[in-house]
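Troubleshooting entry. The earlier prediction with adenosine-5'-triphosphate gave an output that would not parse, so I re-checked the input for stray whitespace and re-submitted. Clean input:
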Amino acid sequence: MRIGIAFDLKSDQTARAGGPDDLLEEYDSEETVEALAAALRERGHAPLLLGGGRGFVERVLANPPDLVFTIAEGSGSRSREAHVPAVCEMLRIPCTHSDPLTLAVTLDKAAAKKLVAADGVATPRFTVVEDEDSAARLEFELPAIVKPNQEGSSMGVRLTSRVRTLEELRRETLRVVRDYGEPALVEEYVSGTEMTIGILGTGKDARVIGAMEIAPRIAKPEEFVYSLEVKRDWERQVEYHVPPRVPPATLRAAEHCALAAYRALGCRDIARVDVRLDARGTPKFLEANPLPGMNPRTGDLCILSTRSGLGYVDLVDRIVVSALSRQARRT
Ligand SMILES: Nc1ncnc2c1ncn2[C@@H]1O[C@H](COP(=O)(O)OP(=O)(O)OP(=O)(O)O)[C@@H](O)[C@H]1O
Ligand SMILES: [Mg+2]
């Protein structure tokens, strides 16, 4: 099968001069695209490199593949991850991963939290603020976490993002709004074990493939933030445990929470859902990543999948098979 890979390389982007150093954090490396192409080749497919943006549109029109495998982050708005699947939908070319609506709604963390909460999934209390004065109107107690409302890969989530005073809250809100040009999500800080959960499939066929605990090596667990600084230095600052070191009933509850959120958001084929336990041990939904990083060495989904017994090539293959079976069923 001819499978086109849609991607946006970090090396092709230009960061805004004077902006923070993580503006390009979401974009992919040549290593990731090569690994994906090699995995597809290993399963007998012919990968085509389609890139992203205008180049993607031109190449897909000139030479439409049988399926598009997207890892393209897009640019410019909270709908950026939806651009490639929207073009595919318009041209009636099958595409992996979630549909444009789900990709847009999950990138907007507040919108995703409202949707999962409406389906009864527990998520930390939150408010969206656009200026530093809104801090005074907070309806829950500090500590809180302040993060850009519509980014991923820990963009804008720093060691300073966990705030304990109104002064820190104002400072972090101002930083997010100024540096990322978007509202800040201020969320109740939940201090228990952090887990990220991989889910494969669509609708009633969706299944957990594995769960991974992210535990700090250096920070105190109850103050831990899996921040940009930590992610960039993950080999030294965190350890991963598959399965998580929590009681079986807690793990089941966390997986149930992730799966319920996956379904509430309408995710398809694959996603990685972040969950954290509160002080009482109840799992709370933090966010869903329906376009999870696919670097076989550093991607959290790839690490958790491999450690759960599903190797990289099989993971890629299962995503393709899930997308094709949807096509056959037209879901
Ligand atoms: N409400 C919260 N309570 C405690 N910790 C939180 C909370 N929200 C975020 N964090 C911490 O900050 C990290 C990054 O937050 P989040 O997962 O929302 O951002 P992201 O950039 O979208 O992540 P990803 O890299 O998974 O795309 C989390 O992994 C967690 O450690
Ligand atoms: Mg996350």
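This one parsed fine. The first strand starts at residue 2 and ends at 6.
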